[in-house]
Amino acid sequence: MKASAGGAVVLTTLVAVVSSAAIYDKGLTSSARVGLAEDTLVLSFQGVTPARRSGAPHHLLLSLAFPGHTRLALALDRAHAQVVLESVINGETVTQKVRAPPVKPRVVVRSLVVEINQGSALATIYVNCRLMGSIHLPKAPRDMAAQHDDDLRVYRERNVEASVDWNISVMELLEKLGCPADGDTNEFMAQANEVYTYRRGDIPINHEDEASNKLVKTLAELIETIKDLQIEIQTQREETALLRDALLNCEACKPGRLGSHSGR
């Protein structure tokens, strides 16, 4: 097999595009593969600084990539103060968001913890030691793996400090991240009427403003507009994922293969 000069240029460009967003992390991959078999999987982050590319709508932090164009990605939407969980199952994308006031432009997020109950597929999000809300994922990571745990690969944003744990007390983990263990204000937990629960495809339920029908209608219209925008950019996202998978499975792209051809 011979590699043409043009092909080499295209390959170099694609590698640059893929690596600029996230890098493969062998240590996190090993931890995640073990954690898939457990009842609870916990993703945690410390000192998350704003992304250098201010034009990107979402700041990707971590991605769990499974076979069959299936993955779970975690990102921050600083412009709208949201934590974003994107599930891609067999190429179909479901984007879910939790309101998180501490997530702001040009502000460092001191800590972010996502606890995933793999039995109920419930993801609970804590930002800066406070409970923000929960999301019912379309599938838990364990179900996404579908008996292919060894094929899981974890990618993280190159400047993000992340860890993957399993069957650990969230309160204990928050303490390790510098959150206060005790206190009259109980910083670990939010009041009941401050917690937002997001179900698949639903509008967030704000227990404090249930009677605000006008607000709900406005939110519904906004969500429909966002969905339309997501459809427009979904093609580009999927093409990037396909390119990444192709590069990972390209025999000719592995170290030592390209160097064995003279190019003549």
Automatic annotation (TrEMBL):
<protein>
    <recommendedName>
        <fullName>Thrombospondin/cartilage oligomeric matrix protein coiled-coil domain-containing protein</fullName>
    </recommendedName>
</protein>
<keyword id="KW-0732">Signal</keyword>
<dbReference type="InterPro" id="IPR024665">
    <property type="entry name" value="TSP/COMP_CC"/>
</dbReference>
<feature type="signal peptide">
    <location>
        <begin position="1"/>
        <end position="20"/>
    </location>
</feature>
<keyword id="KW-0175">Coiled coil</keyword>
<dbReference type="Pfam" id="PF11598">
    <property type="entry name" value="COMP"/>
</dbReference>
<feature type="coiled-coil region">
    <location>
        <begin position="212"/>
        <end position="246"/>
    </location>
</feature>
<feature type="domain" description="Thrombospondin/cartilage oligomeric matrix protein coiled-coil">
    <location>
        <begin position="212"/>
        <end position="254"/>
    </location>
</feature>
